[in-house]
Amino acid sequence: MPVLALHGWLDNAASFDRLAPLLVEAHPEIDLVALDLPGHGQSDHRPAGINQYFIDYVPVVMQVVRALGWDRFALLGHSLGAGIATLVAGTFPERILFVLLVDGFGPMSDRPEQAPGRLRDAIEEIWKEEGRPARPGRAYSSIGQAVGVRRRTGKLSEESARLLVERGMRRSVKGYVWRSDARLKTPSATRLTEEQVRAFLSAIQCPVCVVFADDSEFVQLAELVRPRLKLLPQLESHTLSGGHHLHMENPGGVAGVFSEFISRGSGDP
Length: 269
What we know:
The protein is of the alpha/beta class. It has a domain at 2-111 and 192-266: Rossmann fold, CATH 3.40.50. It contains ten helices and eight strands. The termini are close together. 36% of the residues are buried.
């Protein structure tokens, strides 16, 4: 049973190092591949002058699936990865066995009238960056120092932060620096409208299981997400105690929900 795991923004494939073994232990038939998205972890950056738009992740995922030789497959996504997973599932519904989501349900959206200003802001930010000399990212004297900073920015345990840091950093002459593409932090040039997002969600034909964290910034988006949940007739929604990186901080709880979902036959090829 092929499963492609998609991590969150500025994270990497190690995001699933604690959850994946539990899922495979419960379901040995699972063949799980965790991907470093472009510009994240150990994947290459986009070429100079080529910016990353959210929608571009969909063909990236399908190129990976094609390289793996998979026909039908399942998706596991956290945060950014959850948004990508829903777009892939809505674009290629006949190819998706089931979808597992952690603290995310579709991408962020904009009102139509916001589009011109958003595009302009992004272009002007690109111009500013092009006019500045290249600025190296912050260098850390040790992996331990970087782990401490990552813990504070993401409310992560030392174990979870270390997983992300060790895969996401490289050693330079000045110390340890992040491998991630700095352009990932530039403003999004475009977003789908809420109507478009709901069209993708409505096109999903497979069973979907989503686990939300009760102590996450995503809770603030409840008014946006609640109507989306009603669009999927084959949806299970759960809320567990924990923060945004619930799958890293409470992998047993998340694995338990997902394993039961799969056991009920949702993912039978």
